[in-house]
Every structure is written in C-alpha cells, then in structure tokens.
Amino acid sequence: MRRRIIATILRREFAETLRNRLLMSTILIPPILLTVAPLLLASAIGEHALPPDLAKAVLVQRPEWAGFSESELAGAFAVQQFLAFFLLMPAYIPLAIATFSIIGEKQARSLEPVLAAPIRTVELLAGKALAALIPGVLAGWLTYLVFAVLASVVYGPHLFGVVTDSSWLAGTLVLGPAVGLVSVVAGVITSSRVSDPRAAQQIGGVVIVPIIAVTLLQTTGTLLVGASGYLVLAAILFVISLGGLRLGVRLFEREAILTRWR
C-alpha cells in the first residue's frame, strides 16, 4: 500500500467529518456524558454499603479491595461497571463514521470518481478505516484520562487506584482499539450490502451487544473481568478484524459496488 495515498484519503475524510454536524455531535456529546455519569453514580451509591452477599462476591473477584471501607467498596464497584461503557466509544463512533463515509459518498455521487482514480481498493478501505477508527480511539482515551483525573480529585487515591489498575489500562488502551477495529470492519461490510446509513449502523451495531452482555454480568458481582481477560479478548478481536478486512476488500470490488449501488 502507498502511504501517500492513504494519507490523502485520511485528510479528505477528516475534512468531511468536521463538516458533518451530526457526526461531530456523535463524537463529542457521549464522551462528556460518560465522563460525568460514572462519578455521579459512584457518589450516589458510595453513600450506602453493598449488600453483604454482593460485597463478598465482589471481594472474591477483587481481593485487592479488601482494605476499602464499605462506602469505598460500593463506589469502586459502581465505577467498575462503567469500564465496559468506555469501550462503547471506540465501537459506535467508528461505526457511525464508516457507514456515513461509504454510503454517504454513494448518495452524494462522489464515490464513482474516487473509484475511477488510480487508487487500489485496499488503499481506499485502509484510509477510510483509519479515518473512522482514529476519532473513536482518541475520544475513548481522552475521556478516560479526564475521568481518571476527576476521580482522583473528587474521591481520592482509593478510587483513583481503581480506575487506573491493570484491568482499566488493558481495557481502555488495548481492548478499546480492538473493539473499534471490529466496528470499522462491520461498518465496511454492512455498507457494501445496504444503501441506508441508519440500516448499516443497526446491522453493524451487533458489535455492541457483547459489551452490554459483559456489563450485565459484571453488575451481578460474579464476573469482574481482569487485565488478562481483556488482553485475550483484544487478541481475538484483532484476528477477527484481519479476516473481516480481507472479506471487506473482496466485497468492495469496484465493478460490483458500482453495479449493485446504481
């Protein structure tokens, strides 16, 4: 692949994203909510102790929290649930950008000139994938950084230690980009089969279902995924993404796209 071509596509895609107010609101508003909501929830729940059975189940999964007071344990458990939600940003932001980028170009009739240019299909998809992935990953990392700083200021060192332990670092720094890459691949594949961005997002949104499932399991206190679990999940998702990207390139043969989308 030619880096110069991919860099040109990146600049073009970033400019298009900045001009799209709907996409910008999708990128900017949810991170603000996800920064504030966990702290408010931890504050509300942290005033009360966890039920004894739940507290025991949590301490089995997180023995390092044994020295916490009852209120600190409740706050730590509440905040821990939001780690999965920090994975949503690298999931839905790239999916929204990828589907609008690909299908939007067809609707605006700007795809045909691009395909007629001396550019390889893999270069076009690589540029579009990176342009969708980078904002989602950066939004997730930046939101996490702000969240960790606020947690240390508002709740002190114990809660700061919770949100900066190995599970949070592995989840946000490694698993987040892996989830984002899978989301981009899902957006590319579904966009080759449908002509409505909303339909493509709904189909590609299945990527979010496992994240919600993990969140629901963690609320029971019987499953609190650790760093090793997140790293294993990230490795699996990266492998799936590589296979998905190869499939996406085959689905986006130029003649097939132009014929199918006329």
* Number of β-strand runs: 0
Can you count the helices?
A: 14
Strand content: under 5%
Shape: elongated
What helical percentage do the residues reach?
over 70%
Query: Low-confidence parts, pLDDT < 50 over ≥5 residues?
Result: none
Mean pLDDT: 75
User: Taking Cα atoms only, what radius of gyration do you get, to the nearest Å?
Assistant: 21 Å
Specify the structural class.
mainly alpha
Gap from first CA to last CA: 28 Å
Sheet of most strands: none
The ordered string of helix (H) and strand (E) elements is HHHHHHHHHHHHHH
Folded structure, characterized:
With 262 residues, the chain is mostly helical. It starts with a helix and ends with a helix. The radius of gyration is 21 Å and the shape is elongated. The protein contains 14 helices and no strands.
